[in-house]
Amino acid sequence: MTPERTSWPAILMAVGAGIAAAFQVGKAPIALPFIRAEFGLDLSLAAWILSIFALMGAAAGAGMGTLVTRLGSRRLLPVGLVILALGSLAGGLLPGFSGLLAARVVEGIGYMLVVISAPALITLLTTPTQRQMAFGLWGAFMPFGMAVSMAAAPSLPLVGWRGLWLGMAVLLILYALLVHFRMPRPPRPPSPLESHVLRDVADTLRAPGPLLLAATFIPYSATYAALTGFLPTLLIERMGVTPGTAGLMAALVAGVNIIGNVATGPALRLGLPRRKVMAAAFGIMALGCLGIFQPWIPPGAAYGLCLMVSAGAGLLPGCILGAASVYAPRLTLVPVTLGLFMQGSNWGQLLGPVVVGAAVSAWGWSSASLVLTMAASGGILLALTLRRAGKEP
C-alpha cells in the first residue's frame, strides 16, 4: 500500500494533468469579453460560462470519487483528459451559446475525473513523510494552469476564442496519451467486497472532518473563481487596458497563488495547526476583498490587493487536499473524500461568479466587495471549527 520511496516523476506528471485541466478554467475569463461580444451577453448571463463548468462536480463530486475508487485512478486519469478534450472541441465548433454551455458541462465532467484521480494517485505514490510536500505541489495546479492559460490573452485577437478552445483540445489529447503510456501503475488499495457506492459516501460523511473541509472549500473557491474570472473585465473597465494586457495582469494574480501553495508544506511541518493556517488565509482574503472593488480605491492599489488576496488564499488548497488521507475514514475512501472536497470546491466555483455577476449587474462593482468579504469571513469560522474533528491538534 505504501511505496518505499516517492515517485517524483510520476507526481510531476499527475500535477501536469491537473495543470492541463486548469487550462480549461483559465481560458474562460480571458475569452469572456470576446464571447460576450459575439453573443451579445450581459455580465450576469456571461457568468454562466465560468460557473456551469462546475455543475457536475457540485452535483456528484463524492459519487465520482467512488467511481475512481472502483475503476482505479490510474485508469481514469487519461479518460478524464479525453473527456475534457471532447468538451473543448465541441465548444469550439458548436455555433450557439447554449451549445457552448453544454460543452462546458462536458468539460466539467472530465475536469472532475482529473482532479480526483490525480491526487488519489499522489496518495498512492508518496511516502507518508513526503505526502504533504507532494500535495503542496498539487495545490499549485490550479493557479499555475490558470496563469499559463491567461497568458494566451494577447493571441486571442489573432486566433479567436474558438481557436483557443480547439488548441486546448489538441493539447489535452496529447497529454492523455502521455499519461496512458508513461504513468506508472501504483499499488491499488483493496476494495472490500461489501463496499457499495452509497455506503462509501455515507461512511465518508459520517467521519469527523470530510464534510466540514468540503464546506470550507466553498468560500475559498467562490472568492477565487469570482476574483480571477471577472478580473480581466474589471481591469478593462476600470483601468482602460487592452484585453491582452488585462489577461496578462490577471495571469499574474492567478500565478501568485502558487506562493501560498508552496508555503503550505513548510507551514504544516513547522507544527502550525492546519485550522489556524486556513483561518489566517481566509483573514487575508477578507481584508483584501474589502477594498478591491471599491471605486475610491486607486486602480493600482486595487490590483495590489488582488495580488495579496491570491497569494494568501494559496495556503488553502494544500491544507484541504492534503488532509484527505488524514480525515478519510480509511485509505480506500481517499478518492471519495477527495471527491467530496472537490464537490465543495465546485459549489464555490458554481455560485461565486453567478452571485457576484448578478450583484455587479444590479448594484455595481462595489457590491462584489460585500459578497466576497462575507464569504471569506464565513471561511474563517469554518476553519476554526475543524478543531472539533479531533484528528489534529
TrEMBL record:
Keywords (alphabetical) are: Cell membrane, Membrane, Transmembrane, Transmembrane helix
Q: Name one GO molecular function term.
A: transmembrane transporter activity
Under Pfam families, the record lists:
MFS_1
Per the record, membrane topology reads: Multi-pass membrane protein
- Residue spans making up a coiled coil are none
Regions that span the bilayer: 7-25, 45-69, 76-97, 109-127, 134-153, 159-178, 211-234, 246-265, 277-296, 302-324, 331-350, 362-386
Where is each Major facilitator superfamily (MFS) profile domain found? 10-391
The record, for InterPro entries, names: MFS, MFS_dom, MFS_Efflux_Transporters, MFS_trans_sf
Q: Give compartment(s).
A: Cell membrane
A single Gene Ontology CC term: plasma membrane
Q: In which broad location class does this protein mainly occur, judging by the first location in its UniProt entry?
A: membrane
The protein, known as: Permease of the major facilitator superfamily
